[in-house]
Amino acid sequence: MTALAPTLQAFFTERLICQRQASPHTLAAYRDTLRLLLVFASARKDVEPSKLDIDDLDAPLIGAFLDHLEKQRENSARTRNARLAAVRSLFRYAALRHPEHAAIIERVLAIPRKRFDRRIVTFLIEPELDALFRAPDRSTWTGRRDHTLLTLAAQTGLRASELIGLRISDVHLGTGAHVSCMGKGRKLRITPITSGMVALLRVWLAERAGQPTEPLFVIQSGTSLSRDAVEHRLAKYVQIATRACPSLGQKTISMHVLRHSAAMRLLRAGIETSVIALWLGHEQVETTHIYLHADMGIKERALAATAPTVATPGRFRPNDKLLAFLEAL
């Protein structure tokens, strides 16, 4: 057996699961990346994946794999960098177990992240959100579920994975109403909700009629919604809402856009970026600055508050003979 197979297995079982206690989302992301890499390397080297060795995964092959992701699979630079991060994590672990491959590993770890243009975030304004909330048919069970889910997403700014991971016991509708979730980075986050949201959730919980440990949002068979299902439902409602609000058709809308919309609502209400960072569960306050760049209203108010430069028009008139001579030239 080659050194790669047991190292790869130990990377997941020892490093990620036991030592790091990585979340299921991290495990799935790393698994998908390394599976893609092994399939690519197997085809390039004409060797079965189980017979690949660490030396087969050298820097030129990893570079070709990253190019393959962008060109053949049409992944973005962000996705490319995320895949590279997973590969780097494996090779850092391999460096401790197999110093005899240090030269190969060092070259792989030296592969840089790819720089990319940072675009202004997409968010929905109030008329667009209202049109989207009206799109689900609330005369049906599915429509009431989706209306509640979309409204909760736009108010709390929860990630899609956090929304579908909510349990009935995570909803607290008494004094200090809020929802709690285990977010990215294993951070427990508590987000307050408005009285209108409380009323929506109370109606949905009565109709849902599940046990406290069961998912809050489910399909009619009782199993939890998948992320693909949520995005599919959102795309359907965006198409419906565009008829009433054409500006929606000019935007690419995902569940993360609703998260951005929640942040912009807070920012326009005058909430400090440090509070918004806590609200969204950002690791660093600087991450929230993307919303400052997206809000033209803030920039326009800053411009209006700036005193204009007072300039007196007219031709220069020298008050000295020498300056008058130079002016006449």
Give an account of the 3D structure.
By secondary structure, the chain is mostly helical. The protein has 15 helices and 3 strands. A 3-stranded antiparallel sheet has the order 1-2-3, with no helix packed on it. A hairpin with a 5-residue loop joins β2 (178-182) and β3 (188-192). α2 crosses α4, α4 runs antiparallel to α5 and α11 packs antiparallel against α12. The longest helix is centred in the N-terminal third of the chain and has 22 residues, at 24-45. The model has no long low-confidence stretch (mean pLDDT 88).
Give the key terms:
329 residues; mainly alpha; three-stranded antiparallel β-sheet; 3 strands; 4% strand; flat
Quick recap:
The protein has 329 residues and is mostly helical. The chain is built from 15 helices and 3 strands. Helices cover 57% and strands 4% of the residues.
